[in-house]
Amino acid sequence: MTQPARRDAHLNLYEDAPLNAAPATASLSDGARSDICVIGAGVTGLGAALTLAEGGADVLVVEASRIGGGASGVNGGQIHPGQRRDQGWLEAKVGEAEAMRLWQFAEEARRWLQDRIARHGIVCDLEPGLLSLAHRRDIAEGMRADALHMANRYGVAGLEVLTEADLPRYTGAQGYCGGLFDPHGGHLDPLALTRGLAAAAAAAGARIAEETTVRRVVRDGTGWRLETSRGAVSARVVVATGDGSIGNLLPEVAAHVVPIVNFMVATGPLGDRAATLLRERHAASDTKFVVNYFKRTVDDRLVFGGGESYGNAVPADIRARVQPRMLKVFPDLADVPLTHAWGGRLGITATRLPFIRRLGPDLYVASGFSGQGVMIGPYTGVAIAEAIGGRSDRFDLMARLPIPRFPGGPLLRRAIVIAAMVGAGLVDRL
After folding, report:
1. Helix ranges (DSSP H) in 189-316
2. Where does 352-408 have alpha helices with state H?
3. What is the pLDDT of residues 352-364, one digit of tens each?
4. Across-strand partners of 1?
5. What number does CATH give the domain 13-423?
6. To 10 degrees, what angle do helices 373-388 and 190-203 make?
7. Which of 79, 96, 304, 308 has the fewest CB atoms within 10 Å, i.e. is most exposed?
8. How far is Cα 291 from Cα 76, in angstroms, rounded to an integer?
9. Are 191 and 14 in contact (CB under 8 A)?
């Protein structure tokens, strides 16, 4: 029997049933010093902090809210192999050799994540299996061609192209005309992953200070001064992460990354009924511009994400936004109460590839993962840590990704982006 729906519109399923306790965090006072200061205790910042601390560096992580309080704790937890754009697109934009290097980076990121989950005993409900569902027939045909290309050019085995008739073997989702099953993808509890990475970084010697908002980063002699809500922090190197949350701090990031708010809901445990939605505990996402994504959890809930807004505010009634989208995909859930509903801020770029740059002497930024941060983010942190230590090949690869500025400048940028996004969403509906 399902639980009654709760009235708390911002109840995050991941917070309600934490799998890992967050580590004890450090107190911070005015005049604190650190060799390296990481802004943001999400997966990217913690990937950097863990790597740096394991190498013996003096690392301080400052987080405006709590560990995983940003994008890392409110996303769908899906693991998509590869970069955010498919390999054919990358080959056309950056050439075949560079596209191959980007694929190899993504594969290294996937293996690094799996290895650290095992090495540090991070309990995060890691489950294999990812469905991509085509909402148009031409897209379904493109998936077939893409799977053949990935097998022949990149040696990817196990991809299964699905016709419309094949879909019921995997899912009861309605409105799709084909798809692709990738056994190398999967899903996890993103907040549990983030807390696990934080615990590993703290065990390696990193200090983590929560509820510490950075208001300004300024050059101070040969280093940096960070003006925070708890006083000033001095550091030789600054690593600024925060998927959609650092644009106000760094104008160059704001020019390339726009924050959006995503929305998710969860049912109560569905028992045997869960298998009518997803036959196995897989994750799925579709090919719409305003994407629908969902997964079957280890306790047989359905977690469904869909819809987005192009501001910073989370609306009061998330259920009312997401439930109609969910019922178009799973109409049989009309009688099922939603026990959780939550949302949070993510970051997107014009090309949907992350904005990874060195903005000044010893100032690194990583933002705008556009829904691919669970897997790519932590290893991007590793690449930044390597660059700080003198090895920059992986960082330079990601820093070469083509990320144009959004048009319009500071005054008109948001209005132009919102108009474009709304138009693209209308195309989905039509």
Report:
1. 190-203, 251-256
2. 373-388, 393-399
3. 999 999 999 999 9
4. none
5. 3.50.50.60
6. 20
7. 96
8. 11
9. yes
